[in-house]
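tool=predict chain=A
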Amino acid sequence: MVSVSVENPEQTDARLGRVIAAADFVVHDGVWCFQEFPGDRPPTLTSDTLAMVRDQDSWSRLVPATAEGEGERFGVFSFHFPPDLDNSGFVGWLATRLKTRLGTGVFVVCGSNRARGGIYDYWGCPTDLFDDAIEVIEALRRAS
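tool=predict ok
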């Protein structure tokens, strides 16, 4: 269930600091890219497809990059959250810190696995800033 917290910014920062420290944080190997498929028919789902999304014109799947020229390249990390912690606002909180510290935006793809606490997030960051992003996250995890 999605939680809605009524708190001041300091309380939000403290709560989400506890959330990032307690989350199952994984840095995924390799370089990732989006492959685009025009049209309304979905592409084949393969075992290495991490996510698939669509808009009105095309499908896009997030897969390991295999060659140059596949578009933007990203490093990927993920968070699974403990079921007993309110993680509302986490995406905006962490994205703001990464943007402020590194000057980069990120993308986030969310899913749900009730057996592991509910909502989980996969995050993508440009490869040239990926190591720096992981350092920011590790520092946030240690600070809480």
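Residues 83 and 117 are 4 Å apart (CA to CA). The first strand starts at residue 24 and ends at 38.
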